[in-house]
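Subject: for your reference before the review

Hello V.,

The reviewers asked for a structural picture of the protein, and I figured it would be easier to keep everything in one thread rather than splitting it across files. Below is the amino acid sequence we used in the manuscript, unchanged from the supplementary table.
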Amino acid sequence: MHDWEKTLEFLGKNGWSYAYVKCIDLERGADTYYVCIRRGEERLTSLRPTLAEAVGAVSRLVEAGAA
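And here is what came back from the structure prediction:
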């Protein structure tokens, strides 16, 4: 996983805000993590089985957009 603190610092400097939510699937008995970052009308989201995977997916999207 990329350094989440550095990613958050990058996001903040570039006007992005973020939120994440732990969701519980009662039927499957499993947790899922929803991560969302946004800046104005732009929104990047990821829904993954672990927070590390969700953060990694969003980090890759942010890095791709910054390049």
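For the response letter, the relevant points are probably these. The beta strands are 17-25, 30-39, 42-48. The chain has two helices and three strands.

Happy to draft the paragraph if you're swamped.

O.
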